[in-house]
Amino acid sequence: MIEVKELTKKYGNHYAIKNLSFNIEKGIVYGFLGPNGAGKSTTMNIMTGYIAASSGTVLIDGHDIVKDAEEAKKCIGYLPEMPPLYQDMTVKEYLDFVVELKKVPKAQRKEQVSYVMEKTHITDMSRRLIKNLSKGYKQRVGLAQAMLGNPDIIILDEPTVGLDPKQIIEIRELIRELKKEHTIILSSHILSEVSEVCDNIMIIAKGRLVASGTSEEILKEFGGNSTIDLLVKADEKTVKDKLSKIKAVEDITIKKSEAGRTECILHIADTKDVSEELFELLCKEKMTIIRLNPMSKSLEDIFLEVTDEKYISKIIEDEEKAEQEKKAQKKTKKNLGQEVLEEVNEKSAEDISKEAAKEAEVTDDASNEIVETVETDKEVLDYKVSEEDEKKEEE
Question: Which residues pair with 205 in a beta bridge?
Fold first, then answer.
């Protein structure tokens, strides 16, 4: 449906986004998640053709957003962060204007406008001036204009920004309805919003794609080993000896041990759930359980981790190192190519010299033959002249 390859947008020496690559499949709700200034809006603006990329390509249903812009844009409905609404128009007038701009055939315009108003629940507001609508209803009108033309893809940039909790719930419900017939891409810096309505999450930070997949896939990739917070009635040595029998327990960190009680953290391999096995062992050893609390990273923990300045700095450092290595390899290849070229040139020069020498040798041989021939002819001529002189003397 959408294919983004090596997308980069640069302002001077600052990268708004760098080398973004991902695919958008049909019938799925995708969420761009990231802190403010991460590059979400820039990416969406490039994908919709509002601004040009410094490098990279965006294909919308096989159409290049730059080279085949009109066909590509027919597939997209876009709601920017600030909806492009004409405040002095009524809702109906505005949607009639937009449907005409989108070149929808005249016979279908009335039906389409009625359909999007019904879907976004704004039919009762059709005669209201847009400037008199609440923020929530203005967002609905923006969504309605994005739906006109029946695009396969609807892109929503921060669709719930500035809304109250009730309006946010209404917009979320509307997105759930829309995903039955459209592929939805929305951006947000609010984790709960993205995890609530999106099937697939892409986390962007400092213009880099740092994590991508379903919630479960991201948790599996970045969750690391799970841990168990445990407090039991037993001394430290007993706790270590008994709990080390559980194969999945990789390490035991003692937090506190006093008055016959031990508080510790169990580090479990591969996010395996050992709560039941642990409970049975503790009961068997007659160790009274005061607290047994399995812990694992949440999406929020992972989001904070992968958008942290240190994590991003490491990614940028690795990028710069890879670029330097690439330049070094390119330089090596160039030098190697130059050496080969010089060698070829040397061989060519040597071959030319040999051929020239051969030609010169042939020329010398030919010259010698000519000289010998001339000398021989001269000798014959001199001999004939002397014979004639002798004959004259005798006469």
Answer: 208
- Three state DSSP letters for 251-302: EEEEEEEECCEEEEEEEEHHHCCCHHHHHHHHHHCCCEEEEEEEECCCHHHH
pLDDT at 348 over 80: no
CB-count burial class (<10 Å; 0-12, 13-18, 19+) for 337: exposed
Residue type, 194: V
Q: For residue 58, count other CB atoms closer than 10 A to its CB.
A: 21
Order of all β-strands in the sheet with 227-233? 249-258, 261-268, 227-233, 288-295
Please state the φ and ψ torsions of residue 335, each to the nearest 5 degrees: -65, -40
CB 53 within 8 Å of CB 45: no
C-alpha distances out from residue 388 to 45, 336, 376, 385, Å: 110, 77, 19, 5
**Chain-centre distance for alpha carbon 96:** 37
pTM, two decimals, is 0.69
Positions of E strands within 151-216? 153-157, 183-188, 200-205, 208-213
Rounded Cα distance between 62 and 72, Å, is: 8
* Each residue's pLDDT tens digit, 236-263: 999 999 898 888 888 899 988 888 899 9
Helix 91-101 and helix 106-119, axial crossing angle in degrees, nearest 10: 130
Average pLDDT taken over every residue of the chain? 84
Beta carbons of 151 and 102 less than 8 angstroms apart: no
- DSSP letter at 90? B
Token duo for residue 30: 């995708």
Largest Cα–Cα separation, the chain: 161
Instruction: Enter the tokens of residue 218.
Output: 């991201």
Helix 135-147 vs helix 91-101: angle between axes, to the nearest 10 degrees?
A: 30
Element (H, E) at 94: helix 91-101
User: Strand, coil or helix: what is 356?
Assistant: helix
Distance from C-alpha of 219 to C-alpha of 125, rounded to nearest angstrom: 43
